[in-house]
């Protein structure tokens, strides 16, 4: 490739030099012709202004030794003109460098000059091709008595042009040499930068790179030294929710403010940085490049995060079931003892108390929360809380109809906040978590209070940041995602999520979701046979 680039650049430099020389020579030839014609015209005007010439034409015959011939020859030798011809109105020559031509008519028409016009031309006469200047000849009364024609040999003009060509070629050759040296230096630099790869190799590498970038299931974002996005593969477009319009713009312009933007721009450093974009949980890494830019990779771990949370929930349920199994065995032993002691009334009362506790909890939840998904979630969380020694209460102000537009989103919000509250109060005396869900028109207001240590005022915004947490990471990955998702889900619906201090100490999380409920009159009709769905869910929760 080095030799190809060098030859191409030398050829270009040579072509430019030849073209420049040609472009210079073309106007130079014309300029020299113009200069010769003006010089011939100036000599002709000088001769015509000599009073001896006009007087000689009027008073003497055209002879070889006449005054007109002598004066014209004197001026011709002094000016190095090719010829000076003085003629009368009958076109007869009174002077000529060749004496035998005196007294004869001229070979070219002097009509324009005899009409009082000045003429400049390049023409061919008896002395060959020449640059000519013709002017009228006036007597003392300013009457035209003849004309003066002066010629400068055209060969002398061409000789000047030819004499200038070597110098021009010398300059062109020098320019070509400098261009060849510059081409060699550039080619060497290109060779080092391309590692001596041929054009075909570079083209193949680019095609392979494009196929690889757009084929991998990991988002790749390349930024230049100015921090502008210069490349996005298909997966990055999908994960970030942007398209080709982002190319050439900074992450702040393309994505807006947020942790994802800060990671891509390099304002947040580290490895495997967690960030949330929309409803996706991403793991980002950023690597600087030699040209001052950077390449960032993005991995989608939304499903992994969901599986991890489901695993945590499953483990919690398993622990709760294990504890319930132990408690159930104790209750069965108690019941067996009452029966063996023939204390039948006490046995019946004991069974009623046990069943009534569970039934009361489920009925309390389903009476206040009519959405089956949320009701089932809170019944399950109440069981887990009881096994962890925490009292989970549903506020008396809770009233939520079964008209949610996005029940799964609200389940995610409630589940995250309740889990965080249970973690916060675990191991504390008189641990308690209170949940309040109420509808205000079409707006849903969620409030979760706990009796834990609370959130310091300087950290109340920080806890909603992606990846921030004060807890030990779980086995499946990093913490710091739950509260960030809660805020993102709330803001996506035009709502808000905030934390403050609870009345009796601890933390109070408040989430407001506008337009979260459908209009009552738009409620879809319940299909026949589905009326017992909530009841079935309630029975399963028991």
Automatic annotation (TrEMBL):
Residues 518-542 are annotated as: Disordered. GO terms for biological process: regulation of DNA-templated transcription. Its EC number is 2.7.13.3. Keywords: ATP-binding, Cell membrane, Kinase, Membrane, Nucleotide-binding, Phosphoprotein, Transferase, Transmembrane, Transmembrane helix, Two-component regulatory system. One of its GO terms (molecular function) is ATP binding. The chain crosses the membrane at residues 6-28, 168-186. The keyword Zinc does not apply. Residues 518-528 have a biased composition (Low complexity). GO terms for cellular component: plasma membrane. It is found in: Cell membrane. Residues 406-517 form the Histidine kinase domain. It is a multi-pass membrane protein. SMART domains: HATPase_c. This is histidine kinase. The keyword Metal-binding does not apply. It catalyses: ATP + protein L-histidine = ADP + protein N-phospho-L-histidine. InterPro entries: HATPase_C_sf, HATPase_dom, His_kinase_dom, PAS-like_dom_sf, PAS_fold, sCache_3, Sensor-like_sf, Sig_transdc_His_kin-like_C. It is an enzyme of class 2 (transferase).
């Amino acid at each position: 490739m080095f030799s190809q680039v060098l030859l191409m650049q030398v050829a270009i430099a040579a072509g430019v030099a030849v073209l420049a020389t040609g472009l210079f020579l073309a106007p130079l030839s014309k300029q020299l012709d113009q200069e010769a014609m003006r010089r011939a015209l100036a000599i002709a005007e000088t001769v015509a202004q000599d009073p001896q010439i006009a007087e000689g034409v009027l008073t003497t015959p055209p002879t070889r030794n006449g005054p007109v011939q002598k004066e014209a020859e004197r001026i011709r030798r002094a000016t190095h003109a090719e010829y000076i011809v003085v003629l009368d109105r009958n076109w007869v020559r009174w002077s000529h460098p060749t004496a035998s031509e005196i007294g004869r008519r001229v070979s070219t028409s002097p009509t324009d000059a005899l009409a009082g016009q000045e003429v400049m031309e390049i023409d061919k006469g008896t002395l060959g091709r020449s640059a000519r200047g013709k002017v009228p000849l006036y007597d003392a009364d300013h009457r035209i008595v003849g004309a003066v024609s002066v010629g400068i040999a055209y060969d002398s003009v061409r000789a000047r042009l030819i004499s200038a060509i070597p110098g021009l070629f010398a300059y062109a050759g020098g320019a070509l040499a400098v261009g060849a040296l510059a081409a060699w230096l550039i080619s060497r630099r290109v060779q080092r930068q391309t590692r001596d790869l041929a054009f075909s190799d570079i083209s193949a590498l680019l095609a392979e790179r494009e196929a690889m970038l757009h084929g991998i299931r990991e988002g790749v974002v390349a930024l230049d030294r100015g921090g502008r996005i210069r490349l996005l593969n298909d997966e990055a477009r999908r994960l970030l929710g942007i398209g080709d319009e982002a190319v050439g713009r900074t992450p702040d312009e393309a994505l807006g403010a947020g942790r994802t933007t800060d990671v891509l721009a390099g304002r947040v450093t580290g490895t495997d940085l967690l960030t949330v974009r929309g409803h996706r949980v991403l793991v980002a890494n950023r690597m600087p490049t030699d040209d001052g830019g950077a390449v960032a990779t993005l991995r989608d771990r939304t499903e992994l995060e969901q599986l991890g949370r489901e695993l945590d929930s499953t483990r919690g349920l398993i622990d709760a079931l294990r504890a319930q199994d132990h408690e159930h065995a104790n209750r069965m032993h108690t019941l067996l003892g009452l029966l063996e002691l023939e204390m039948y009334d006490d046995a019946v009362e004991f069974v009623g108390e046990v069943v009534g506790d569970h039934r009361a909890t489920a009925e309390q939840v389903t009476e206040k929360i009519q959405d089956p998904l949320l009701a089932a979630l809170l019944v399950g969380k109440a069981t887990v809380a009881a096994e962890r020694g925490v009292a989970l209460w549903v506020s008396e102000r809770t009233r939520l109809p079964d008209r949610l537009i996005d029940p799964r989103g609200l389940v995610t919000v409630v589940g995250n906040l309740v889990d965080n509250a249970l973690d916060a109060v675990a191991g504390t005396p008189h641990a308690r978590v209170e949940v309040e869900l109420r509808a205000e028109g079409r707006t849903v207001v969620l409030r979760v209070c706990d009796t834990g240590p609370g959130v310091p005022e300087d950290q109340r915004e920080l806890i909603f940041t992606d990846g921030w947490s004060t807890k030990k990471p779980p086995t499946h990955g990093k913490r710091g995602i739950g509260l960030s998702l809660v805020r993102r889900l709330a803001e996506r619906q035009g709502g808000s999520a905030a934390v403050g201090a609870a009345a009796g100490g601890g933390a109070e999380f408040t989430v407001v979701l506008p337009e979260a409920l459908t209009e009552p009159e738009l409620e879809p009709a319940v299909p026949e046979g589905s009326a017992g769905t909530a009841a079935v869910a309630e029975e399963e929760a028991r």
